[in-house]
UniProtKB/TrEMBL annotation:
Protein name per its UniProtKB record: Photolyase/cryptochrome alpha/beta domain-containing protein
Keywords, comma-separated and alphabetical: Chromophore, FAD, Flavoprotein
Cofactor: FAD
Cofactor: record remark: Binds 1 FAD per subunit.
Single biological process term from Gene Ontology: nucleobase-containing compound metabolic process
Species of the source: Kazachstania africana (strain ATCC 22294 / BCRC 22015 / CBS 2517 / CECT 1963 / NBRC 1671 / NRRL Y-8276)
Key word Flavoprotein present: yes
Length: 578
């Protein structure tokens, strides 16, 4: 395959929209050429600016800061406050679990609790029923730039979950919200959702359970639904997403941690102090495997996925085929017994990728992080971490990666604007990004002329997955060497990762671009040559994804930037705001 430099016009200009404490910088006008540009079938505007169709009134830094100074309540706190005094109605006849990013039966807190409520009610009234639902709102997929890889993964997971549930005689009902340009955080969605649930219960009192999600849109969605509860409709939520519940770990000044190292030590101490049993470090939930409904009809999931959300034919060769809770656990077991022992040295290798490959299963909820911690802890001789964390062995550092997930989810709960397209460090919105559209396109396509960057970006585009080292390399390159707003890259990753998780993605990009929580110093800029030599020493990875480098008859582009000069430019730009 011949790869040539992009010939998109240099006339393409993009406005820089940076609102700093209510003040707006001047911005250039979008040209007609810019509006027509597409990358991998998507309009470029999807990545270079917030979607104004769904978010016409983007939050400003001034408004975001109200979450920090207490002038605006955090949606996570609001939801906890509204649901803390939940009491089930004694007349409840129908019990519904709403699956979201928890597509499993094992260690599913809300599902286990709901089954307990159901069993207690059925002991008094045999006519009680239990069922599960999953809701599709394509508007959410569009607004959140959900990747086709992840959608494909989710639909496969639902099919395997449906089979699991059928063995318990519990139906899985697929609901689709079809109103145009309405997100699930809208009042119209909340009203529709309530009506769907009461319809499923034939007008009888219904209880709906679900596990809390930490993203701002999802929190406001649940707040609106909770506001519609009455004698006929109850909605209860549970903590399930993290190993340690958000907002539990605080500093001595009762503040949230913004630095990972002390938070991680506190996380480890808390878990060890609360150790559940000799067999289980962290408590997990369970329920008996039995037939729960007297009658049951097995039905297919009725959903015709639009072509826009489908994987392309060549991408299907790389799509994960085995997507189930059982396979997620087998993947964990295989990793722990194999390359998990060499995690410290193997996880960053670009060619062999000695990582667990569990991230997609975690983000879609086919396995809980509590299960991962419990199994790893036990295999490690009942050790969670070394006293000196710098000396953590491979299994301990694997658990540490789970702690990072908790850390970032805690952050999104406490600083909601992190999931509203703003950086943790609001002052970095004043960085004078170059935002060269042509360079951005070349970065997306993997034709920058920097082999290690291009190989990674091509792998992402073709497979929907790259390891953490790859993400750090490409994020550093675009935000520092190309001096392009990190949010452009974050959106591109969002649209193409099979394992996309908002908290982790935003957290990782904030770290690499020096704009986020516990970020690397702005003057730390990856040396691309050294990264390639260290993590692809035999060039196996680069040769696989850039075959034209070995073929003299094929053209490979010259570098779009001088690495040394671009490093200096980045230092000067970042120094202005630090």
């Amino acid at each position: 395959m011949e790869i040539r430099p992009s010939n998109h016009s240099l006339e393409c200009k993009l406005y820089r929209n940076t609102i700093i404490m209510g003040k707006r910088r001047s911005r250039s006008v979008e040209t007609e050429v810019h509006k027509k540009i597409k990358i991998a079938g998507d309009d470029i505007n999807m990545f270079t600016s917030l979607n104004k169709t769904y978010y016409p009134n983007a939050i400003t830094a001034l408004e975001a800061n109200k979450f920090n100074n207490g002038k605006r309540k955090k949606p996570y706190d609001l939801l906890i406050e509204k649901t803390k005094n939940f009491e089930i109605s004694g007349n409840t006849k129908t019990f519904i679990h709403w699956f979201r990013n928890d597509l499993r039966l094992t260690d599913n807190t809300a599902l286990a609790r709901l089954i307990k409520y159901f069993e207690a009610a059925k002991s008094k009234d045999v006519n009680c029923t239990i069922l599960t639902i999953f809701v599709i709102n394509e508007n959410d997929w569009m607004a959140h730039l959900e990747s086709n890889w992840k959608i494909d993964f989710t639909l496969k997971a639902l099919n395997s979950l449906r089979i699991q549930l059928s063995e318990l005689q519990i139906p899985l009902v697929l609901l689709q919200y079809k109103e145009k340009v309405k997100l699930s955080n809208s009042q119209s969605f909340a009203t529709w959702f309530r009506s769907q649930c009461t319809s499923l219960s034939n007008g009888q009192p219904v209880l709906v359970s679900s596990n809390i999600q930490c993203e701002t849109d999802e929190l406001y969605r649940d707040i609106k639904i909770v506001g519609l509860t009455d004698d006929n409709f109850s909605f209860t939520l549970y903590q399930d997403l993290c190993v340690v519940e958000p907002n539990i770990l605080r500093t001595l000044n009762n503040r949230p941690y913004s630095i990972f190292a002390p938070w991680y030590r506190k996380w480890c101490s808390f878990i060890m102090e609360k150790r559940y049993s000799n067999d289980q470090l962290v408590k997990t939930s369970s329920f008996p495997k039995m037939n729960y409904n007297d009658s049951f009809q097995f039905t297919k999931l009725d959903y015709a996925i639009p072509s826009y959300f489908k994987l392309e034919e060549q991408q299907r060769n790389y799509a994960q085929e085995q997507v189930s809770e059982d396979f997620a656990n087998k993947t964990l077991d295989t990793f722990l017994k194999g390359c998990g022992r060499d995690y410290n040295t193997a996880k960053d290798d670009l060619a062999t990728e000695g990582s667990s490959h569990l991230s997609a299963f975690i983000s879609s909820g086919l396995i809980s992080t509590r299960t991962i911690v419990n199994k790893t802890y036990k295999l490690n001789g009942n050790k969670l971490a070394n006293k000196d964390i710098k000396n953590n062995n491979s299994l301990e550092n694997f658990i540490r990666e789970i702690a990072w997930r908790d850390f970032y989810k805690n952050a999104v709960c406490y600083w909601p604007y992190l999931s509203m397209d703003l950086p943790f460090n609001l002052s970095t919105m004043d960085i004078k990004w170059d935002n060269n559209v042509e360079n951005f396109i070349k970065w997306c396509k993997g034709i920058t002329g920097i082999p290690v960057v291009d190989a990674i970006m091509r792998k992402l585009l073709n497979t929907g997955y790259i390891n953490n080292r790859s993400r750090m390399i490409t994020a550093s390159f675009i935000s520092k060497n190309l001096l392009i707003d990190w949010r452009w890259g974050e959106r591109w990753f969002r649209r193409h990762l099979v394992d996309y998780d908002l908290a982790s993605n935003v957290g990782g990009w904030g770290f690499c671009s020096s704009t986020g929580l516990d970020a690397q110093p702005y003057f730390r800029i990856f040396n691309m040559d050294l990264q390639a030599k260290k993590y692809d020493p035999k060039r196996d990875f680069v040769d696989k994804w850039i075959p034209e480098l070995k073929d003299e008859d094929k053209e490979y582009p010259s570098p779009i930037v001088d690495l040394k000069a671009s490093r200096q430019r980045a230092l000067e730009a970042f120094k202005e705001v630090f």
